[in-house]
Amino acid sequence: MNFMTLLGLELHRKWVTSKRYPLNFYASIVFAAVILILVISGASYLSGGALSLQRMESLVLGYYLWTLTVGISSAAAEEIVEDAKLGTLPHILTSATSLFSVLLARKVVLVLYQLLVVGVGFAFINWYFDLQVRFHPLMLLVFLQVVVAGFAVSYLLGAIALINKQMSTFVAFVQLLLLMVFLVPIESELSLYIPVSGSMYLLRSLAGGIPVEASQMVLASLPSVILFMLSSLFFHFMYKQAKRRDVVTQL
């Protein structure tokens, strides 16, 4: 089975699941919007009502990208554990399609679903706080950098889940670290050498109308790509180790 066929099947599965359980979609939008309103209101209160529009825009961008990345980064580990519980993991492992490709297709579909959720919520928050976030075509490339970094973290956690199925505490810890990266910016070009942090630096610049050079875009892309390559190699290595120790499908 080629990847496009697999992707089509995963899209169909997600569509059927979303139609059957639509409450999850609406609840995700409302929950993200309410939390963000509370975060901004709390930050404004602590700053004496002097929270700048630029800082507010950074909070909004950071929070929604964090929400998107958290969903991507924890997907592989959660799905491996869930498939092991349901007994479907052995069927995936014995199929002609690799586990790596199955997880990749699921994450691509998850990105499309999360984009819809995040897009609706972002439009509402943008209207509610009367933000002035400027859209620039280069934002799509920056967004792609964040997605690649999310995929990298996802395969890293998925590799660990192949050996150790009890991952909830560790995944929560990683999500907290991601929250710090997204909402506590490094306002210097040093961030370009750090995955995700450099992308956020460029995104805030573009949203504020500050021009970004091509060299900065390349520098910010390299850490995410390198991290993805390393995590993919680590996933394949841990998968071989798990099969050798016969613990892939064990809980």
General description of the model:
- With 251 residues, the chain is mainly α.
- The protein has one domain.
- It has ten helices and no strands.
- Helix 4 crosses helix 7 and helix 9 runs antiparallel to helix 10.
- The two termini are 28 Å apart.
- The model has no long low-confidence stretch (mean pLDDT 76).
N→C terminal distance: 28 Å
The biggest beta sheet is recorded as: none
Q: Regions with pLDDT < 50 over 5+ consecutive residues?
A: none
Q: Number of folding domains?
A: 1
| Secondary structure tally, helices | 10
Protein name: ABC-2 type transporter domain-containing protein
Organism: Pseudoalteromonas rubra
Transmembrane segments: 25-46, 58-76, 88-105, 110-129, 135-163, 170-194, 214-235
Keywords: Membrane, Transmembrane, Transmembrane helix
Blueprint (SSEs and pairs):
Layout: H1 3-20, H2 23-46, H3 53-73, H4 75-86, H5 89-93, H6 99-128, H7 138-163, H8 168-183, H9 197-207, H10 214-245
Helix pairs in contact: 1-6, 2-3, 2-6, 3-6, 3-7, 3-8, 3-9, 4-7, 7-9, 7-10, 9-10
